[in-house]
Specification:
Oligomer: heterodimer
Number of strands of chain A: 14
Largest sheet of chain A: 6 strands, mixed
Distance between the termini of chain A: 39 Å
Structural class of chain A: alpha/beta
Radius of gyration of chain A: 22 Å
Helix content of chain B: over 70%
Number of helices of chain B: 11
């Protein structure tokens, strides 16, 4: 059956001039209409290159991109008429005040001066930015500035939103306001949202579907629940040692081989059947005395990433 | 084999509107003007004082009866105000926008690259108006040139602004580093200063030939003809302005294409 998709991507590849490896290497994606679709991966995985191609900013070396029935590669200028894109940083808006940043973006999306003014007022209210409306973005905190940029992405409702790390630096109240605003657009207009993130917790809570990217390739794509079910037989144990771990202990030596080590912090994924034995040993002297802290958790999307061969465990777990 | 487009929606979703050139220029210019609201005053003063100083300084060596040289000084100094802003500052601004990836913002909106370049250029060109008027009026008074011809200043400054802004935008967008765009903008303004103020007849033959390739010179020549005493060849003057406008249109179109390329890298 034909899948109705907001985006269909086939075989997308891109190598930047002078680079030795491909930023994107044969990416296939299907972003269903009306979904919140995540692109998750560590820094440098190729997420931003992917979305810059999706919005027509960068021309791929190979591949096809269909956006709501339009060929983005043949007509790159059609993407800005269908998609609102929020980049990781928006230096073009930096020296404007918040009101002017939103209003200018609205006018550059085709709103009249009056429509842009009305839409700006609504967005200032919706995102709680009213008190900051006349302050230049350069004089705001990082989180406030990000919120103002999100507001400029939401002006002049587009059927597709592509948001690159939209909630970076936001406090919980602002984060909630952003997700409420996105949720409302999705419910009222069927807006499709493509969210680029390396925040695992956010990915697990807000996404309908997620594509996990590593070294320019999609290594998995499914709902967060189904992806996590694939590694459901495992548990993650995080150990923080006081000093040098006691390597003379045979179990510690075994754990060390499977652990991702960051200084005194070890992160180990274990099969459920082994967890009780390991915890028994860890909670008795002398190992317990050597531990400063330990936590046990069920699998996360980071575990999915690592179990699929992901190599850089630098995804944000906050 | 199915293509991505055929696999997608059976009926394509109608895209939003393309922003017209006029609306795009207006919105970009309004944004840029809001951005430099604080810096506008000092910039206008610097642009004006430099040209005004030259007009007054050269009064010491240019005889009032040598109206051709006097008109060249006033026309050159007046167009230099435009050069300072449209060539020098615009090259710096677009070089900086390119360097910090700020052009992505515009490229991801349904506004043409030409509107972005023209809107940015138009916002800068507005700074030049007071300086152009003050320099020309003071110059006319100091050298006793006919004030009735001052209306010709407007088309001359406008066409010079097109040409200088076009080249300024090209420098900012084509040069690989913002520092190079700044240096090129400064050097370009210096060339406009020398070749604009020195009467054509005083220049060596080889430079005289190359001079018309320098942006703004066609407008300077037309303005010299318009400002001096005696009969003006209006047809010649307007042909020169039309050529200056065409020069500017080509440079701005090239700058629009350069903006697209500056984003896809």
């Amino acid at each position: 059956m034909e899948q109705r998709a907001a985006y269909l991507v086939r075989g997308l590849s891109k190598t930047y001039r002078g680079a030795t490896s491909r930023a994107n290497d044969g990416i296939d994606l299907e972003v269903p209409s009306g979904e919140i679709f995540g692109v998750l991966g560590p820094n440098g995985a190729g997420k931003t290159t992917l979305v810059r191609q999706l919005v027509g900013l960068v021309r791929p070396d190979q591949g096809e991109i269909s956006l709501l029935g339009h060929d983005v590669i043949a007509e790159p200028r059609v993407a800005p008429r269908l998609v609102a894109y929020l980049a990781q940083e928006e230096p073009a808006l930096a020296e404007l005040d918040v009101r002017r940043a939103i209003e200018t973006t609205g006018r550059l999306r085709g709103l009249s001066r009056r429509e842009a003014g009305a839409a700006t007022k609504d967005l200032l209210d919706e995102l709680g930015l009213g008190g900051l409306a006349d302050r230049p973005l350069t004089r705001l905190s990082g989180g406030q500035r990000r919120l103002a940029c999100v507001a400029s992405a939401l002006v002049a409702d587009r059927p597709v939103l592509i948001l690159d790390e939209p909630t970076t630096g936001l406090d919980p109240v602002a984060r909630h306001a952003v997700w409420s605003a996105i949720g409302r657009r999705r419910a009222e207009y069927g807006t499709t949202v493509l969210l680029v993130t390396h925040n695992v917790l956010e990915a697990e809570t807000v996404l309908d579907r997620v594509a996990v990217i590593d070294r320019g390739r999609v290594i998995a794509c499914d709902t967060p629940g189904r992806l996590k079910a694939a590694v459901d037989d495992s548990v993650r144990i995080v150990l923080v040692w006081h000093h040098e771990p006691p390597y003379d202990d045979s179990m510690v030596e075994t754990l060390a081989r499977a652990a991702i080590v960051e200084g005194r912090r070890w992160s180990v994924r274990l099969e459920r059947s082994r967890v009780r034995d390991v915890l028994d040993r860890l909670t008795q002297a002398p190992l317990f005395d050597a531990l400063e802290d330990y936590t046990v958790s069920t699998p996360s999307l980071e575990d999915v990433y690592l179990s699929l061969g992901g190599t850089r465990p630098d995804m944000d777990k906050q | 084999m199915k293509t991505a487009a055929r696999e997608g929606r059976a009926v394509a979703v109608e895209p939003g509107p393309v922003v017209s050139l006029g609306a795009g220029i207006s919105a970009v210019a309004a944004g840029q003007l809001a951005r430099v609201r604080v810096a506008r005053g000092p910039l206008m003063i610097v642009a004006t004082v430099q040209s005004l100083g030259l007009v007054i300084l050269l009064r010491g060596i240019v005889h009032q009866r040598d109206t051709a040289t006097a008109a060249a000084v006033v026309a050159g100094a007046t167009i230099l105000v435009v050069g300072f802003v449209a060539l020098n500052l615009l090259a710096q601004r677009l070089g900086a926008l390119k360097a910090n990836h700020a052009l992505d913002y515009y490229a991801a909106l349904p506004v043409s690259p030409a509107a972005v370049v023209l809107g940015t250029a138009a916002s800068y060109a507005t700074f030049t108006l007071p300086g152009v008027l003050v320099t020309a009026v003071v110059g006319d008074l100091v050298y006793d040139l006919p004030m009735a011809r001052l209306w010709f200043l407007l088309p001359a400054a406008a066409t010079a602004a097109l040409a200088l802004a076009g080249v300024g935008a090209l420098l900012g967008l084509l040069l690989p580093r913002p520092e190079l765009a700044t240096i090129a903008g400064q050097l370009g303004m210096t060339v406009v200063l020398f070749l604009g103020l020195i009467p054509v007849g005083h220049l060596p033959e080889v430079i005289r030939g190359l001079r018309l390739a320098v942006p703004g010179m066609l407008s300077v020549d037309a303005l010299v003809d318009g400002l001096r005493h005696g009969s003006t060849h209006w047809l010649d003057a307007f042909v020169r302005l039309a050529a200056a406008a065409a020069y500017g249109a080509v440079a701005l179109a090239a700058a629009g294409a350069a903006l697209r390329r500056a984003v896809d890298r």
